[in-house]
Amino acid sequence: xxxxxxxxxxxxxxxxxTARAAEVPESANVRxxxxxxxxxxxxxxxxxxxxxxxxxxxxxxxxLDEVGDTLVTADGKQFYAARQYVHQFLAKLPDPELKxxxxxxxxxxxxxxxxxxxxRETRPxxxxxxxxxxSRPAEDAILLLAELAFERGQFAMAEGxxxxxxxxxxxxxxxxxxxxxxxxxxxxILATQYRGDRQAAGRVLADFQKAEPKAEGHIAGKTGNxxxxxxxxLSDTPPRLSSPANPADWSSLGGSPSRxxxxxxxxxxxxxxxxxxxxxxxxVEGVGKIGASPGSGPVKSLAFHPVVMDGRAYIADAGRVIAxxxxxxxxxxxxxxxSIAKPALGKDTLRLPTATDTDFTLxxxxxxxxxRFGSPLLFPVPADVEAxxxxxxxxxxxxxxxESLPDALPTRVAWKRFPPVxxxxxxxxxxxxxxxxxxxxxxxxxxxxxxxxxxxxCYRDDGERPIWVTDVCEVSTAAGRTRPELxxxxxxxxxxxxxxxxxxxxxxxxxKPAWAYRYPRIRRFPGDGRYRDLSPPVAAAGRVxxxxxxxxxxxxxxxxxxxxxxxxxxxxFDHVIGAAAGKVVAxxxxxxxxxxxxxxxxxxxxxxxxxxxxDDPYLPTFGRGLLSDEVIAWPTAxxxxxxxxxxxxxxxxxxxxxxxxxxxxxxxLLVATATEVWGYVQEGDEPPRESPQPRPILxxxxxxxxxxxxxxxKVGLPLRLDSPAVLERVTAxxxxxxxxxxxxxxxxxxxxxxxxxxxxxxxxxxxxATLVPYDGxxxxxxxxxxxxxxxxxxxxxxxxxxxxxxxxxxxxxPDIIEVIPIRNGLVLRVGEHHLVAYELATGRICWAxxxxxxxxxxxxxxxxxxxxxxxxxxxxxxxxxLSTGRRWLIEAAKGHVLKEADTADREWATPPQRLTDGAVxxxxxxxxxxxxxTACRVLWSFDAKREASLTGEAxxxxxxxDSVYVFVHRNxxxxxxxxxxxxxxxxxxxxxALLKADADPLTALxxxxxxxVPTAGQLVAFKLDTGREAWQAExxxxxxxxxVLTQNRLVVLPKYAVTxxxxxxxxxxxxxxxxxxxxxxxHTLADxxxxxxxxxxxxxxxxxxxxxxxxxxxxxxxxxxxxxDGVWIAAGGAMYRLH
Length: 1139
Prior knowledge:
- Helix content is 16%, strand content 35%.
- The chain has 1139 residues and is an alpha+beta fold.
- Among the domains are: 29-235, Tetratricopeptide repeat domain (Serine Threonine Protein Phosphatase 5, Tetratricopeptide repeat), CATH 1.25.40.10; 356-401 and 408-518, Beta Barrel (Lipocalin), CATH 2.40.128; 776-902, Beta Barrel (Lipocalin); 923-1012 and 1021-1029, Lipocalin (Beta Barrel); 1036-1138, no CATH class.
């Protein structure tokens, strides 16, 4: 009892200590907040309630004029500009008082409207809405702003303006709208469709048709019933307009100033397994060789984010800019900081891969490059900086040299800027700037009173002094921060996330605060090394999406007002990849890793409007992805996945290698790894497909023979079997069943053939063999069944007529492992992540099941998610093993999972073996096997135990007669146990038999006295009653062996023909290398691939003495079976009978 008390005490102390260590860090304070403005607003509201409207109007107008751009909060979280509260209060005025207010502001509002109309400019119209939002001209300003936004392809912005006129508008309701509201709603539906969210447009249109079935008006160049016009437009594909100036370029992180990560147009789905080019990032002279990835996590070294401009890719590091040719990958250093200043960076700063969490970004637009160079350490000032001590970073603009060609590299330093701070106080730029309409905007951090103040500065591209500088927030100085924070353009606002508790927006043109939000920060434990990726806000569809590094929520704001629309969590997010087609996509770092797509409007990630993909909860994101309106390119630690945006399923075969940060432009996918830049140059969207041209060539009949006699093909060409032949057994119980062989073969001149041969019935009546020319993808499985070939390759299943040689049906699906014929005319296709049952006659899919029990059609899936390892059909059931250490019992006719249980977590060494009563024996672990019936009930179990010596490989099983032989893999060899099939009791009481080399249990045979097991180089026999070794015999070198047993002979032959030793041919060439011998070397290797031998060994089963050896000239796969009055061998495109 005392011991228990002590344990409890220790646990409590640990919990308390951990809780103290995990204190919530301080949240940043919002700059620009005014408590005075809040007091004045409260007083004006009280006057409205008290009926003193005239005084309230005067007070509100003064607030607008004097402090309308200050921030006010009611709850300490959401901060709005004071003018928003003013407009809300004015909208509550009684109609007579509102009329007086409108008369009062009519003249200045009308002047701004006239200016905006005459110039078709937005700035006068926006000023009108900021200052006189409730005036009569404001309605025309809203309509004109919406029209201008729609013309420029800013559909979400246009939708936001039109919504201001609706009764249910956010914030305040514009009173006395003159425009017909059905027409306004129709325009909103049109904007929703044109911004790519066709599903949302369809839902809203359905509601509109019910509410306004007879509404008429003029829209999209047509006059008539609005519902009819919209329905017609929705059935067509709207034109896609792109926001970047050059849609072929990738101008900054996320592709554009909005960081939306969207590729205009189509993004390729099928990428080759290897990049077109790989180019190492040139090391800095004098720094030394490229180092190893930092031990704190390889994702930290993914520091480079490529941009693309005018057919070239660019990356930057702490002191250089490097260009890469998009087609060839040729690298060239465009800028080196040593050209304008003394070396101010230590070697560790320039070493590759980077050892810190820094990210190097740059902006490319208008033929210029903009980037930050200097020490990645923001605070405190790095000790290794020799110059610019208080200014450890600089903004640089590179331009083309004067009078250069239009495609010249930007190598000239056009200007450089230090952070705009007074005096010599330390300050540093955060990251690369935004460049919008000739204005350069960048965030910087400075030290003030022992605290870090984050601010935004705006310059004209050719100006030396800032147009405006605005403080955003301030927090206690964070020691050792190296990751920069970036700005995002959201309509007329610039949004900044401090990743210290604040998201804030300022006006692009004036720098005045627009809104802010203070989010709760999460606890961090000392030494917590969890890496959170560079995660700037993403702006799309009139919203801003933020996944703060120091928070556990995904936040969605209205881009104009800053209102929090929705949030999701608690989850740890890596970053927001981007937004397209009405969805926003974010990658999840924990607690279960994965990727999610949310409805951008509602935040739903369930059902039709969103999805979650956590198929592998341990698979981390590895780099920054991108997306189009159809697919997402998602880099992970194991592969690059192409995910469908609509439903989150995998759209193409993954490229199974870790990638990095992605960019896409000019039909090239760029990947920036820790030390290299890759380019996938893609000319077409779909991968080439091979089309077979079957034309049968009949072979001669198989004659009855008393000796070994091959069938001579009429074509006169030797054949090489390239896939295992499948022999159907001929037994006395099934005399009608043919002994068929089906295989893939290849002639010496490279022609591919499908081979079918056989003898009908148990008496081996003569039948024909067929060769079918086949030019398609090489199948991994060939089964001759029902007069046809059933073929399976990595990505398709087909049935080919063996007479005409034509495909009866073909189903293209990825991820195929094997094909298994099952009952009721069905065939099961087993893939890594999907099971699919087809009708054998038609190829129609009857059911499909993925490895997460979802009824889904086959498609590529997350590589290391749950996988199917093995499957076997017995009775009307399927028994399936998964990589998660579970086995399922599935109803074969419908695909329903009837039962599941634990089993081996490594692939079964042998498929489950049938017992005579219909049950099967399955390996449930390295030393454990179980007999289960068709209801998956365990009849008996056996465990060999002694776990310490196990290798971990699943036990092998072989059923022969009334005995079950269990092959247990141990460190010192393979132990063989003999069990009774009825009860699972051991029959060798003394000790198990021991094999010194590995063996395939399925090749073991037994008679009444002995069990025979071929291994590498040996054939071993054990006594059946004691398990003691009876005899050993040597076997010649071969890859693997197979056996058959007749009345007085044990026949042993290899599974694959033994071919000439290619290494010996190469050694001969290397002893006398000469160009004249190369052609002969190639011919020799080609000939040797078709020169092989199948040694057929006949042993006396009683003594192990070799009685006879026969050699068959053949290459490729070999199959053997016993039937009728002989042993039948399929090799080299022919069948042989041993009498």
